[in-house]
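Reviewers of the previous submission asked for a worked example of the structure-prediction workflow described in the proposal, so we include one complete record here. The input consisted solely of the amino acid sequence. No template or homolog information was supplied to the procedure at any stage.
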Amino acid sequence: MARHDPAIPTFAVRDRQRRRLLDVWFQPKRFESERLYQRLGARFLKRYIPTGGDAVMHRLRRRNPHRRLVRPGLHALRQFERWTRLAEAVHLTGFAGFAALTVRQFATGALGPVGLTVAVTLNLTLGLWPVVLQRYNRLRAYRAIDAASRITSKHQRT
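From that input alone, the workflow returned the following structure tokens.
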């Protein structure tokens, strides 16, 4: 008879706690809305982002009309929501790392005022602005998930 490893339930509990903690960050806050993120430029960025923006997808669909970033269905929407979390985490990590490097370089004199301005501008543009897009996409995904869930439950009742 196989012995039960007591570390497995502990790991599962820690994993659930970690997910809840991350959910606190990733869940929309009261002040967040699609309109807020549109005003911050999410739709502009969405148009030109090289990893699935509107311009890129339009070009890809010319060759392959069935190509989609998000497939239809509730499962695909949930996968997309998780993907936005990953993309946001990557950009936040990069933003924090590059900010720390920029501060260190400026403090040691290796980066002058012009270099600091360029570094901060690039960090905000390439590190923080994509976070705006991911949060905007996640709000849209939540709306689509809610609608798909209602449709699914309505079909199950009939």
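The chain has one domain: 34-157. We consider this example representative of the routine output the project will generate in years two and three.
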